[in-house]
Amino acid sequence: IFKFLGAISVDLGKDRIEPYLPTILTPLYRELNSNYAEQDPTLKNLSQEIIELLKKLVGLEVFSLAFSSVQKQANQKRAMRKKQRALQTVANPDIAARRKLKRHKNKAETRKRKIESLRPVHKAKRHRSHALKDLAMVQ
């Protein structure tokens, strides 16, 4: 898709690409700023190359305006999601409690895995999964 966006940008040219610039930059910006554990470095490099191509094609000023608008929009979405998560904690405390328990359980498992990798002789005790108990409501 990134290659397609680059090809369309070059094909349309400077004058006709400007209205579509924020739409094209949105996925590229998302890929550049993502911090996934299993991120593909080739995608990041490709998005950086296409951004450089767009910068040369439309000029630094037009590109900067479009890029800053995409950045602002992404930051607003991020803030909105954070606000909704905080509101949900107040509105639905049971869901928030389940999410918190799950997060703590995952944290404990990660800690045990880390101990096992650092000290292979020492075996951390693992919590036996009782499927029905895990599904029960927290009281």
Automatic annotation (TrEMBL):
Domain U3 small nucleolar RNA-associated protein 20 C-terminal as annotated: residue spans: 1-116
Annotated GO CC locations: 90S preribosome; small-subunit processome
Protein name: UTP20 protein
